[in-house]
Structure formats: structure tokens, C-alpha cells
């Protein structure tokens, strides 16, 4: 009995010696997470966090580390690893909240060492598209440069007001990119209903929920013979003034051209309509924008994928609050 106890204590001592006191980097967690998922099993995020945490063999001190929000640092980094591996196309989501290794992930797995860096992501089309969309969204913010790891690093290590605001902006950019992906993966009918919800949230057509439910059923006119109109929102109870909607669920590499826009304007003339909104999950060609801003400027508004997801964030459509950050300052009036 004594021998067995001493053997168990010896193994525990060896295990403690093998434990790591320093927190693995984001690149290390990328590699560790992909290797763990290499068995092909589909798993929930929390299952991945639990398993990868165990594989990291961290000391109690390292496991106790937290970020300013109070979240476990190790679990925070594993969550970012899952997100970045998904953005690079190394993981897929077969179901909501479930990750699984992709064919691309299996192909690169034999080459993965102790780390998996963004430089190794850069050859992947999915990652390139992700960076391009982030660059597009951030272009209006003083020519911001995309650095995918800047968000988790800033959230963990700094607490300045400007950094906090910048981190929220970047997190919302990532959320908007995910929104756009979900819209593109939905059916055309779902996208048309989403567009109607956005316009209603903006105040067009009133706020009555029963009327909205009716509108979502009745306003979908996008069928054969619809004349290019996908939906109608009444600006007054009698329908004297209406907004006519065209919604195109296109992929990122399939921009809306002038023929589609011009066809919608023709449909507006056929309805004797004075207002039209054309929304897409893609973008518009220069010719399409020139036409809308020229001949059709008094009749038509174009909304591309970036603008649409920005409106969804601003008006709370398809999203919900996750956490509220409050920045406090001294109340000078209190001390007078």
C-alpha cells in the first residue's frame, strides 16, 4: 500500500514538473486546437475549450489567469483560435455552435508544428476574403490596417479608452462579417424578409408587431411576374406612399450591375412609384452606382452588404447585446 502511495505521489510530482507556467500564445493555441480537431469529430465550443485546456498542461497559476472582463484567459484564447481557424477555412460549422475540421484543415494538418500563424493563413481564400471585408469596413476609419490578432491582444493586455473603443469597433466588424455570411447562406425569401425587418426597425412603415407579421407574409411579392419588386412597405395607413424593395442575395464575387439596377427602376416607373430601395449582400459595380446617382438619384437608394450589416448592428436586427461596457469619468460638478 505504501509503495502504491509513493508511486502515485511520484507520478503527481512528475506531472507537476511537466506543467507549463506561461500562457501559450494565440499561434500556439491555433496549432493545438487544429491538432485536437484532427480526429474529425464535431464538437461544441465548450467541449473544445475543455479538451484543449487539458492538452495545454497548464499549471494552476496559468489556469487562474483572467482577462480584464474576468473571463479565463486560456478559454478566451481557445475561443479565438476556433474563430480564426474557421475564418481561414480550416474548421467548418456543420451546425450552430458546432465546429469540425474541414478538408482544407486535414490537408495542412501534417505540416502544422507547435504554432500556426497568420502568415500560414494568408494563402487561404477564406482568410483573404475575411481580410478584404474587414479592410472594406474599416476603410472609413482613418485608413485602419487589419490585424486579426490585435483584438484579443488588446482586450487582454490594455485598458485605455481609445483601445477599448477600437476593440469594440473591431469586434463589431467581425460580427458584421459573420452577419453577411449568414445572410448569404440563407434562402432568397429569408433575405427579403430580413431586408423588410431592417427597414421596419429604421422606422419605415410603423412599429406595430401584428402589422409587421402580416407584412412579412404579404409583402413578399418576389415571384414570377413580380416585375422586379420583392417587397412593399407602406409609409402611411392608406398606402398612398410606398417604398418598393429589391433584394439580391449575391456572393462576394458577384456584384450587382447596371442592368439589374436599371431593371428595378423600370419596375418602379411601371408602378408609378417614387421611392425604391435596392439592397444586396454583395456590392455594386461603378456603372450601377453612376446610374443610381445620376438618372435615378431622386428615386432610388442603393445599399450594399457593408452598409446593410452596419444598419443591422445600429438598429439591432439579427443581433443581441452580449456585454455592456461602461466608461466612467470624474463628475466635476460633484466637487464644486
Structure description:
The protein is an alpha/beta fold. The protein has 2 domains: 145 residues, Arc Repressor Mutant, subunit A (Orthogonal Bundle); 128 residues, 3-Layer(aba) Sandwich (Trna Endonuclease, Chain: A, domain 1). The protein has 15 helices and 7 strands. The strands form 2 sheets. Strands 4-5-6-7 form a 4-stranded mixed beta sheet, sandwiched between helices. A 3-stranded antiparallel beta sheet has the order 1-3-2. A hairpin with a 7-residue loop joins strand 4 and strand 5. It starts with a helix and ends in a 21-residue tail after the last helix.
Count every helix, treating DSSP H or I runs of 4 or more residues as helices: 15
H/E order of the elements? HHEHHHEEHHHHHHHEEHEHEH
By CATH, the topology of the largest domain is Arc Repressor Mutant, subunit A
Number of beta strands: 7
Instruction: Give the distance, in angstroms, between the N- and C-terminal Cα atoms.
Output: 75 Å
* Shape category: globular
Largest sheet: 4 strands, mixed
- The low-pLDDT segments are 6-14, 142-150, 221-225
